[in-house]
């Protein structure tokens, strides 16, 4: 009897280009699609028009992060309903209140995704909040 070896599934990795997001300050892909999963790199509250932080407060930066992920979703034909996981990083305990306040605003009508929350000493570019998203499209 002959044994047939299964062929491994080849997952195509596609880099999503975006005009909706501010250009990266460092070398990384803002979004990568593998099969039906999309991984969005950590977003800080950058204003796409200026490339700088949109606000000084954690709440203001979180609001900009959500504007940016909404713009990316609209550009790519996705929606926030497709976000299944969010990983939140706050620079210090004080940033958590502002981030949670804005988080609740964006998920009043939508079921919130699974979430990991981590307090860190500092974030890139002096940001108060960074959020990484995973979508299933």
Give the CATH architecture: 2-Layer Sandwich
Q: Biggest sheet, strands in spatial order?
A: 1-2-3-6-4-5
| Average pLDDT level | 90
Specify the structural class: alpha+beta
Shape: globular
The ordered H/E elements are: EEEHEHEE
Between the first and last Cα atoms, what is the distance in angstroms? 41 Å
How would you sum up this structure, described in words?
- A six-stranded mixed sheet has the order 1-2-3-6-4-5, with helices on one face.
- The chain has helices at residues 58-76, 94-106; strands at residues 13-16, 31-34, 37-44, 83-91, 114-120, 129-136.
- It is an alpha+beta fold and 137 residues long.
- It has one domain: 60s Ribosomal Protein L30, Chain: A.
- It starts with 12 loop residues before the first strand and ends with a strand.
- The longest helix has 19 residues, at 58-76.
- Helices cover 23% and strands 29% of the residues.
Short structural description:
This protein has 137 residues and is an alpha+beta fold. The protein has a single domain (13-136), classed as 60s Ribosomal Protein L30, Chain: A, CATH 3.30.1330.
List the helices and strands and how they pair.
Layout: E1 13-16, E2 31-34, E3 37-44, H1 58-76, E4 83-91, H2 94-106, E5 114-120, E6 129-136
Parallel strand pairs: 4-5
Antiparallel strand pairs: 1-2, 2-3, 3-6, 4-6
What keywords describe this structure?
globular, six-stranded mixed sheet, 137 residues, EC 1.-.-.-, 60s Ribosomal Protein L30, Chain: A, 2 helices, alpha+beta, 6 strands
């Amino acid at each position: 009897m002959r044994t047939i070896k299964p062929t491994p599934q080849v997952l195509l990795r596609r880099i999503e280009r975006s005009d909706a997001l501010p250009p990266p300050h460092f070398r990384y892909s803002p979004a990568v699609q593998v099969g039906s999963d999309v991984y969005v790199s950590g977003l800080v509250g950058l204003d796409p028009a200026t490339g700088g932080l949109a606000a000084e407060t954690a709440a203001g930066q979180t609001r900009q992060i959500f504007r940016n992920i909404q713009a990316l979703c609209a550009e790519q034909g996705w929606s926030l309903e497709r976000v299944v996981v969010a990983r939140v990083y706050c620079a210090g305990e004080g940033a958590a209140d502002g981030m949670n306040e804005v988080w609740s605003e964006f998920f009043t009508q939508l079921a919130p995704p699974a979430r990991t929350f981590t307090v860190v000493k500092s974030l890139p570019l002096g940001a108060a909040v960074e959020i990484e998203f995973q979508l299933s499209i």
